[in-house]
Amino acid sequence: MTNSCQSCGMPLSKDPQGGGTEVDGGKSTKYCSICYDAGAFRHPDVSVTEFQHQCLEALRRSGMPKIMAWMFTRGIPRLDRWTEG
Hints:
This protein has helices at residues 48-61, 66-73, 80-83; strands at 36-37, 40-41. By secondary structure, the chain is mainly alpha-helical.
């Protein structure tokens, strides 16, 4: 089990749903509920750059300072979702 969502980088312990779900309804050990549901990504056609920007903006809307939001999102391109091909 990974400690962070392999799509957005959010610590899985912070996911209010306890993780995304697989097709069979089981919990994903790799992806959070914001990114992943019923065995599929919620935003399947987004590029890593677009997704990174969406995450940065969501963190900013939640009150996080811009520099911290940038630091949290800069590692997104190295996560499994974006590196597995």
